[in-house]
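Bug #77: duplicate submission created two jobs. Keeping one. Sequence:
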Amino acid sequence: MAFLGASTSKNDIKVKVHGQSGSISCLNEDGCLKRGDLSQMTATIPQTNTPGKTTVAFMVQGEAVFTFDYELYDCSAPFFQTVDPTKGVYTGGNILKVKVLRFPISSGVDITFGGATAEILSTFDGGAEGTTSIQFKTPARTKAGDAVIKLTSGTRTVTKTFETVAPCAFDIFCSSSNGLVLGASQILFLKGLSPK
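Kept job's structure:
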């Protein structure tokens, strides 16, 4: 769902993904569902066969009003659904909880983080079609930057990039939203990393 200014009609808005146009619809026949000074619309993105991250752009009169990143998954293959938290300190000791779809671990699982072995704290095997949950502690790295989380079970492997940052004297926050609405108020839920 995208929230746009109430004065903007659905005919003024276009959505683009992979350079292709999608469609916009309102939630009732009289226009858009009003929520205070906001209107709520649904965007249908065009079909694509290319998995990975892409940018969704909402266009008004040919200009991108706002954009956000969106990940497209190949549902026939295992993939990370969530990684919580979304970033951590490079000095290690972060407790990460990952959820991976279609990644059974009945034969066990090995986890590396930035190439080093991670300490597994708990696991739940979701089977071939369900969601597997794993909680683990990250090892220390020598510097901040991206680290690859790699899960291996039998012949199956799945990877995800995770951002590590330097420890500091204050909390680092991750927003609950990847995009902000221009000209309107928005509530953001913040998750903080504990100071080190």
